[in-house]
């Protein structure tokens, strides 16, 4: 286990270097001269020169890459926003908590509802309830979060007027913040609810068919006890394993939900920076998301190995 | 000498049996489709995909109106006999736009998946076949770097930087989907290259290129095909998402994402754009996931594709 752990972490280093590389070269992918593209058609030559100097575009590529990488590794310095002159790292750190709260709360919703539905469906296999839950989870799994967000917005905000429209709620007012959190986290959670319910149902049924459950039945242990004590405990493993994976994916999916609900967060910061052509913020944003994503995947893999010792650590 | 001839004859026999195997694979495809069509979910999936494909190919003939024809006076109309699904913010017929939207969804997803499969499989087999350690590690490194980003974020940023257009979107989708195929192809190649028929081909003097193209790739296809089926759904989703954010196909082209975007902008004036485009997107994704699921069951019931792909 320890060897596997160390190996996974060492393997991360070249990948993260590559990520840094890609983020840095993003600016060179801009068509034409990056500085004048960012400033638009009405920029004066002096302005373009000044921006080039600020972004290090006037120096050789390798020198500025070295400077960029060194700044990140030693000081966590991601440069500064082209327009607001604020350090990118502080901009991102302001946004990060909102995204984490959103991702975690939607994961909690997805797990709770998904597990309940999965158990219900597998306990009543073949019944109408099972059919309804399976159908629901298949459809829910096919609803992308931006579609879910638009639909929830339409029904709960425009038709029923139950929820506030935009933003993340007043600062310091927890109730209002929670109120603003419900719809966004449900829109992110909905396809995961379907996924978890479907997954849990099939693994539960698989475990129900195994020999040791038959043995437990033959001993006369009550079904309710068997279901929770023996079956769920074994069937839940794949669900646990996807939590880390899900959290990582939710960081990506949060982009749409944050834009639609006009909620501050990493995704919205990146999309706003894209439309403002504020490349340093985009670079910093994708770096941060990549690091979070890689860490979440690492945790997922390790927990998978921990919960299922049969996996061979290659 | 005699011994040599004998050996060659033996090797040729093995190769011949391999050819028969290929023929059987063709028969297999027919068999697989018949299995899929026995499964209720499979039928549903194939039907939905069939409808969408028909819409995409025959859209000028199926669509009741011109999807670009403006009629400002009749904007935000509710569904009626003249406009079955209502009209949008510029008075365009939503049904026609949805039907034409299938075109973009299909072009982008089929284009993206095919490029990703071709490039991913070639890179994966080369890495797995062990042409050299440097090449293997280099390919793995590229794959790991791309996989370090959530797919949607990388696509968003790359499309935004390169400039939104349909072609750029297909390229970026293919690039970000490629790692999954590379990993599966590599893992499959690693296990297949120890097989007897590969050895036989090698001793008959076949070049690496020929072995990879003729003997390895045809045999690693089943898991790749399942992945491709699942990826179609993902690509349809991402195309709609990018167009929704204004980073995909350019308006006024009809795309489900753009219809949804218009619906979001005029959410207080008319619910119909959101409702119909949502149904279209969800149906398309449902169709492909059902299809991929029954394909998985038909191809290999016990194997979990996710573990191999490391999704």
Structural account:
The complex is a heterodimer of chains A (314) and B (311). Chain A has 13 helices and no strands. With 314 residues, chain A is mostly helical. The longest helix of chain A has 36 residues. In chain A, 40% of the residues are buried. By secondary structure, chain B is mostly helical. The chains are: A mainly alpha (314), B mainly alpha (311). At the A-B interface, helix 1, helix 6, helix 7, helix 11 and helix 12 of A face helix 5, helix 6, helix 9, helix 10 and helix 11 of B.
Short description:
The complex is a heterodimer of chains A (314) and B (311). Chain A is mainly α and 314 residues long.
Shape of chain B: elongated
Mean pLDDT of chain B: 83
| String of helices and strands of chain A | HHHHHHHHHHHHH
Q: Which range best describes the helical content of chain B: under 10%, 10-25%, 25-40%, 40-55%, 55-70% or over 70%?
A: over 70%
CATH architecture of chain B: Orthogonal Bundle
Helix content of chain A: over 70%
What composes the largest sheet of chain A? Answer: none
Order of helices and strands of chain B: HHHHHHHHHHHH
Keyword list:
heterodimer, A: 314 residues, mainly alpha, globular, B: 311 residues, MetI-like fold, 12 helices, 0% strand, elongated, disordered C terminus
What is the element layout, followed by pairings?
The complex is a heterodimer of chains A (314) and B (311).
Chain A: H1 2-29, H2 34-39, H3 45-55, H4 61-75, H5 88-123, H6 128-141, H7 145-159, H8 174-208, H9 211-218, H10 223-235, H11 237-260, H12 266-275, H13 279-307
Helix pairs in contact in A: 1-13, 5-6, 5-8, 5-11, 5-13, 6-8, 7-8, 7-11, 8-10, 8-11, 11-12, 11-13, 12-13
Chain B: H1 2-36, H2 40-57, H3 59-62, H4 94-129, H5 133-147, H6 151-162, H7 166-192, H8 196-203, H9 208-244, H10 256-265, H11 272-299, H12 305-309
């Amino acid at each position: 286990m320890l060897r596997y752990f160390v190996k996974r972490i060492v393997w991360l280093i070249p990948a993260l270097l590559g990520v840094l590389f890609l983020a840095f070269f993003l600016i060179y992918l801009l068509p034409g001269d990056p500085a004048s593209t960012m400033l638009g058609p009405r920029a004066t030559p002096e302005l373009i020169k000044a921006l080039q100097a600020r972004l290090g575009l006037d120096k050789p590529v390798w020198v500025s890459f070295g400077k960029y990488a060194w700044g990140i590794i030693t000081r966590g310095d991601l440069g500064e926003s082209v327009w607001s002159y604020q350090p990118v790292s502080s901009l991102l750190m302001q946004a990060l908590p909102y995204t984490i709260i959103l991702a975690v709360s939607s994961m909690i919703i997805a797990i709770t509802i998904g597990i309940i539905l999965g158990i219900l469906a597998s306990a009543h296999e073949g019944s109408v309830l099972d059919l309804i839950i399976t159908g629901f989870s298949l459809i829910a799994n096919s609803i992308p979060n931006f579609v879910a967000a638009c639909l929830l917005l339409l029904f709960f905000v425009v038709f029923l007027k139950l929820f506030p429209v935009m933003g993340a709620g007043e600062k310091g007012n927890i109730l209002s913040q929670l109120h603003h959190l419900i719809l966004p986290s449900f829109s992110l959670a909905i396809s995961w609810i379907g996924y978890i319910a479907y997954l849990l149902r099939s693994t539960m049924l698989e475990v129900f068919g195994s020999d040791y459950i038959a043995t437990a039945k033959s001993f006369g242990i009550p079904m309710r006890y068997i279901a929770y004590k023996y079956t769920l405990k074994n069937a839940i493993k794949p669900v646990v394993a996807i939590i880390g994976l899900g959290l990582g994916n939710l960081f990506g999916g949060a982009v749409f939900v944050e834009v639609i609900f006009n909620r501050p967060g990493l995704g919205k910061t990146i999309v706003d920076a894209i439309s403002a052509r504020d490349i340093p913020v985009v670079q910093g944003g994708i770096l941060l998301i990549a690091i979070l994503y890689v860490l979440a995947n690492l945790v997922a893999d390790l927990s998978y190995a921990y919960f299922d010792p049969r996996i061979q650590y290659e | 000498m005699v011994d040599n001839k004998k050996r060659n004859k033996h090797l040729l026999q093995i190769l011949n049996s391999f050819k028969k195997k290929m023929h059987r694979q063709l028969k297999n495809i027919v068999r697989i489709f018949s299995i899929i069509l026995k499964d209720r979910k499979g039928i549903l999936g194939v039907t939905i995909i069939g409808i969408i494909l028909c819409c995409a190919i025959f859209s000028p003939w199926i669509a009741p109106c011109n999807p670009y024809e403006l009629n400002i006076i009749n904007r935000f109309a509710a569904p009626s006999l003249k406009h079955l699904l209502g009209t949008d913010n510029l008075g365009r017929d939503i049904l026609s736009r949805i039907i034409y939207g299938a075109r973009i969804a299909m072009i982008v997803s089929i284009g993206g998946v095919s490029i990703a499969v071709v490039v991913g499989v070639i890179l994966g087999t080369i890495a797995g076949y062990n042409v050299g350690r440097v090449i293997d590690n280099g390919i793995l490194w590229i794959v790991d770097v791309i996989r370090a980003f959530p797919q949607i974020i990388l696509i968003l940023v790359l499309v935004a930087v390169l400039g939104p257009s349909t072609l750029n979107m297909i390229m970026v989708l293919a690039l970000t989907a490629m790692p999954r195929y590379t990993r599966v192809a590599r893992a499959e190649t690693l296990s297949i290259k120890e097989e007897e028929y590969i050895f036989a081909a090698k001793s008959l003097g076949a070049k690496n290129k020929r072995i990879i193209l003729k003997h390895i790739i045809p045999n690693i296809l089943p898991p790749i095909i399942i992945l491709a089926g699942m990826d179609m759904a993902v690509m349809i989703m991402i195309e709609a998402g990018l167009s929704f954010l204004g980073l995909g196909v350019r308006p006024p082209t009809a795309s489900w994402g753009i219809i949804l975007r218009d619906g979001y902008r005029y959410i207080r004036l008319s619910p119909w754009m959101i409702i119909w485009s949502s149904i279209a997107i969800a149906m398309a994704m449902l169709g492909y996931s059902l299809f991929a699921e029954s394909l998985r069951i038909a191809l290999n019931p016990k194997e979990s594709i996710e573990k191999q792909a490391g999704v």
